[in-house]
Amino acid sequence: MASPGSRRMHAGTALAALGLVPLSIPYPAQAADVQAGKAAAEKCVACHAADDWEGESAASLESLIRDIVAGKVKHKQPLELTPAEVADIAAYWGEASQKGRKRR
User: Most CB atoms closer than 10 Å: which of 50, 68, 78, 100?
Assistant: First the structure.
Protein backbone atom coordinates (compact mmCIF):
# COMPACT_ATOMS: atom_id res chain seq x y z
CA MET A 1 0.00 0.00 0.00
CA ALA A 2 1.28 3.47 -0.85
CA SER A 3 2.04 5.91 1.90
CA PRO A 4 -0.23 8.94 2.26
CA GLY A 5 2.58 11.24 1.08
CA SER A 6 2.99 9.37 -2.20
CA ARG A 7 -0.56 10.24 -3.26
CA ARG A 8 0.01 13.95 -2.86
CA MET A 9 0.69 15.86 -5.98
CA HIS A 10 3.18 18.70 -5.91
CA ALA A 11 1.25 22.00 -6.00
CA GLY A 12 3.08 23.20 -9.12
CA THR A 13 2.38 19.92 -10.90
CA ALA A 14 -1.28 20.12 -9.99
CA LEU A 15 -1.62 23.69 -11.28
CA ALA A 16 0.23 22.84 -14.48
CA ALA A 17 -2.00 19.77 -14.99
CA LEU A 18 -5.02 22.04 -14.73
CA GLY A 19 -3.54 24.44 -17.26
CA LEU A 20 -3.29 27.25 -14.75
CA VAL A 21 0.46 27.77 -14.98
CA PRO A 22 1.74 28.58 -18.47
CA LEU A 23 5.25 27.28 -17.81
CA SER A 24 6.59 27.40 -21.34
CA ILE A 25 4.88 30.47 -22.76
CA PRO A 26 6.81 33.69 -22.20
CA TYR A 27 4.77 36.85 -22.13
CA PRO A 28 5.68 40.48 -21.58
CA ALA A 29 4.90 42.11 -18.27
CA GLN A 30 3.28 44.95 -20.16
CA ALA A 31 2.53 45.83 -23.74
CA ALA A 32 5.15 47.65 -25.77
CA ASP A 33 4.72 51.41 -26.13
CA VAL A 34 5.04 52.55 -29.75
CA GLN A 35 5.48 56.22 -28.82
CA ALA A 36 8.23 55.39 -26.33
CA GLY A 37 9.82 53.28 -29.07
CA LYS A 38 9.76 56.23 -31.45
CA ALA A 39 11.61 58.36 -28.90
CA ALA A 40 14.10 55.59 -28.05
CA ALA A 41 14.81 54.93 -31.75
CA GLU A 42 15.94 58.53 -32.26
CA LYS A 43 19.45 57.53 -31.23
CA CYS A 44 19.45 54.89 -33.99
CA VAL A 45 18.62 57.12 -36.96
CA ALA A 46 22.21 58.28 -37.40
CA CYS A 47 23.06 54.81 -38.75
CA HIS A 48 19.76 53.22 -39.75
CA ALA A 49 17.62 54.47 -42.61
CA ALA A 50 13.87 54.37 -42.35
CA ASP A 51 13.55 51.53 -44.85
CA ASP A 52 16.09 49.26 -43.12
CA TRP A 53 13.26 47.33 -41.45
CA GLU A 54 10.73 47.17 -44.28
CA GLY A 55 8.61 44.05 -44.04
CA GLU A 56 9.94 43.01 -40.63
CA SER A 57 7.53 42.16 -37.84
CA ALA A 58 7.84 43.60 -34.35
CA ALA A 59 8.57 40.08 -33.05
CA SER A 60 11.48 39.52 -35.43
CA LEU A 61 12.88 42.97 -34.71
CA GLU A 62 12.61 42.43 -30.97
CA SER A 63 14.50 39.16 -31.29
CA LEU A 64 17.23 40.82 -33.38
CA ILE A 65 17.62 43.76 -31.00
CA ARG A 66 17.76 41.42 -27.99
CA ASP A 67 20.54 39.47 -29.72
CA ILE A 68 22.45 42.69 -30.43
CA VAL A 69 22.13 43.80 -26.80
CA ALA A 70 23.31 40.35 -25.66
CA GLY A 71 26.33 40.56 -27.98
CA LYS A 72 25.21 37.63 -30.15
CA VAL A 73 24.91 39.80 -33.27
CA LYS A 74 27.55 42.29 -34.36
CA HIS A 75 26.66 45.95 -34.19
CA LYS A 76 28.69 49.10 -34.84
CA GLN A 77 28.63 49.88 -31.12
CA PRO A 78 27.35 48.00 -28.09
CA LEU A 79 23.72 48.62 -27.24
CA GLU A 80 22.58 49.05 -23.70
CA LEU A 81 18.80 48.85 -23.66
CA THR A 82 16.34 47.62 -21.09
CA PRO A 83 13.94 44.85 -22.10
CA ALA A 84 11.15 47.46 -22.19
CA GLU A 85 13.18 49.70 -24.53
CA VAL A 86 13.88 46.74 -26.81
CA ALA A 87 10.17 45.91 -26.97
CA ASP A 88 9.20 49.55 -27.51
CA ILE A 89 11.67 50.11 -30.36
CA ALA A 90 10.64 46.84 -32.00
CA ALA A 91 6.97 47.77 -31.70
CA TYR A 92 7.61 51.17 -33.26
CA TRP A 93 9.72 49.93 -36.15
CA GLY A 94 7.51 46.88 -36.64
CA GLU A 95 4.33 48.93 -36.80
CA ALA A 96 5.84 51.42 -39.20
CA SER A 97 7.29 48.62 -41.32
CA GLN A 98 3.99 46.84 -41.67
CA LYS A 99 2.19 50.04 -42.63
CA GLY A 100 4.88 51.07 -45.08
CA ARG A 101 5.45 54.35 -43.23
CA LYS A 102 8.71 56.15 -42.70
CA ARG A 103 9.99 55.78 -39.17
CA ARG A 104 11.70 59.14 -38.83
Answer: 68
